[in-house]
Amino acid sequence: MVNCIAHTQRAVRTAPAPGDATRPRAASPVRNGGARRPLIAPALGAALLALALSACNGTGTRPALVEDGGCRPPQGYDLDAAFAKTKDDLSSGCEAHFDTYLHRLLTIGEGDPTPENKRKFSEFLEWSTDAGLISRRQAQRTYNRYFNVKFVSMIGDYSNCSHTCRGKGRVLNDLRRELVDKERGLLKVSADRDSYRRADQLMRETELVLEATCSACSTTR
Predict the structure, then answer these.
(1) 34 dihedral zone (left: phi>0; alpha: psi -120 to 50; beta)
(2) Could you tell me where the DSSP H helices lie in 94-167?
(3) Which of 13, 101, 195, 196 is 20 to 30 A removed from 203 (C-alpha atoms)?
(4) CB neighbour list of residue 132: distance below 8 Å, 6 or more residues apart
(5) Other C-beta atoms within 10 Å of 170: how many?
(6) Three-state SS for 70?
(7) pTM of structure
């Protein structure tokens, strides 16, 4: 593949411009103000290079679209249309940009917050699992992180001194970051104030439990 590209680039650089094949070859390139005249027009050279590279990639599979060439997350305020475009793009070579598309969908959802958006994101994540883009576990964690009161960061026994207090700062930071995501999913996208208040309350209670646990652990040493 690398050799194919290198050969293609050399061929394009040395290819004659249209009509040059019938002209007498000069002893040296014509100079204009000291600059060497290009052997091939830039636009034609780019076209030939693109055509040749597509031949290099001709393996029977659809080439991945580049970020600025085809993988462009949806715009506007219509969430249903955004989901449709996202599914089409992710099925057409843009699967590496899944997270970018997901965050754009959340941003569009913020423009029209409604509890119905929870179902739409749940169905999208289920589709993503069926399409093989993410695992079922990843889909569940993503949904819970944004749209569930339950904290996916709360894994483990927080009453265990060695497990909890050694990394208490990291645990609290993880919980706080997740609360920000829940604010986005529950409040800004779904307009579910009650669920967000419960998540916020759960976060505060967890902080108190951690502080009490680590204080008790330090006194028993």
Answers:
(1) left
(2) 98-110, 116-130, 136-147, 161-164
(3) 101
(4) none
(5) 10
(6) coil
(7) 0.66
